[in-house]
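Q: What changes when beta-D-fucopyranose is included in the input?
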Amino acid sequence: MKTHTFPQNFIWGAAASAYQIEGGWNEDGKGESIWDRFSHTPGKILNGDTGDIACDFYHRWPEDIRLMKEIGLQAFRFSIAWTRVLPAGRGKINPAGLDFYSRLVDGLLEAGIVPCVALYHWDLPQALQEMGGWPARSTAEAFAEYTDVVTRSLGDRAKYWVTFNEPTCSGLLGYQMGIHAPGICDWGQSLAAIHHLLLAHGMALQVIRNNAPQSQAGIVIDPIPCQPATPAAEDYAAYRWFDGYHNRWFMDPLYGRHYPADILAEHVQRGNLSSSDLPFLQPGDYEIIATPTDFIGLNYYRREVLSGKVDDRGGTSEPLDQPDEQHTKMGWEIYPQGLLELILNVYTEYRPAKILITENGASYSDGPAPDGRVHDQRRIAYLQGHIQAIHKAIEFGAPVEGYFVWSLLDNFEWSLGYSQRFGIVYVDYDTQLRLPKDSAIWYSQVIRQNGLVEPESQPA
Ligand code: FCB
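A: The predicted holo structure follows.
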């Protein structure tokens, strides 16, 4: 391995989200979220798992901060559960909820760890879903109010703000494919939801600018690098469609280009919209959505190879004929080159001033070995390959200034429950004991050396 040293102020962190780690789902005045409702609905989550307890981070966060400090993390990206702060989504504030996050931010700062606060990682208040959810414009207004409450409380101390994590997942998996909360399958609702998520992002940025003027704010998205399986016309069409509705539909309006006209026309042609006059679009919306950010956060796990052998979404991934060591336990192909492609595509196409890699990691189920340690060599190899790809992107001039491994702890992986372990720290869900895996020890070294350093050759 070659030595890859990173720029001096590069930030090394780890990420997590409220519903996936906190537990305490109905404690101290917390309201119900769409993920509480979804996971309590039989048949929605593998093995009937729920986030009711998860990693019990709600009670164990001081211990977890100690762990972060031991690993040497420089930043921790977490999300706020909207329903802890505003149990019904709007209106009455729950001081105990705000206080929890205030103590967490103080605890991180005391440990010398930069808090990177995401306002939304998919857990909409159920009360707002009942009033229409993201397809309703009023939800964007509610989000701006919630942002105001949170940034007034934490804005003096938290300097990194993320409005949304992966609006693609909320908009597409939640309202079009139905595999995430609230479990709806309807293109019309999905496109309205996406619009209001993007609008809410722009509205929230303006609130953050007011309440926390010294901070940096941005959004986290997950454009998936993709390509046609073969040069055949139908594969190319499937690729264009996927890249259009999954990637450009989000990136273009964020950077002031409006929704892509070719994909809008295709939505109409497919019957997803009755006409190209978007019923939810109001004058001035595009300007709000394109409010400038300080950084763009990119999450990367895999690429998509599209085949025109059609499913009803108009394209499907071509199962790649590759041996299993090419895939993680999620079945996702290991393709570090895709991270380089993603960064360079986003940078050359949209010219963000600053890029953070806000999630990257791998699911493997390695548990404690007889020697009591977790030898997750495959995760180390995965992370190493992807960190090398980032280094190369920086050499090409891309302004990547931070990396957050997903995830600090094994946690609740949405509809797959606890079956997927992404942590660099192993969690025994029966005892809640934490055990840093070999990857955590390896990552501490990466942080200490500010990159990947060729191991000194051992004397023979
Ligand atoms: C991302 C999510 C994160 C986690 C990883 C594996 O899409 O943002 O919460 O589930 O995937």
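Observations recorded in class: The chain is about 40% helix and 15% strand.
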